[in-house]
Amino acid sequence: MRRMLVTGAAGFIGSNFVQFWAEHHPTDNIIGLDALTYAGNLASLEPVADNERFTFVKGDIRDGEAMHGIIKREGIDTIVHLAAESHVDRSIHGPDAFIDTNVRGTHELLKAARDVWSEDWSGGARRFHHVSTDEVYGSLAPNAPPFTEDTAYAPNSPYAASKAASDFLVRAYHHTYGLPVTTTNCSNNYGPYHLPEKLIPLTIVNALDGKQLPVYGDGLQIRDWLYVRDHCRGIERVLEKGRLGETYNLGGNSERRNIDVVKGICAHINKIFAGDEQIRERFPKCPAAVGGDTAELIAFVKDRPGHDRRYAIDPMKATLETGYGPAESFETGLLKTVRWYIANEPWWRAVMNGSYREWIDLHYSGGKREAGSGKR
Ligand SMILES: NC(=O)c1ccc[n+]([C@@H]2O[C@H](COP(=O)([O-])OP(=O)(O)OC[C@H]3O[C@@H](n4cnc5c(N)ncnc54)[C@H](O)[C@@H]3O)[C@@H](O)[C@H]2O)c1
Question: Domains of the chain: which residue ranges?
Answer without folding.
Answer: 3-193+226-253
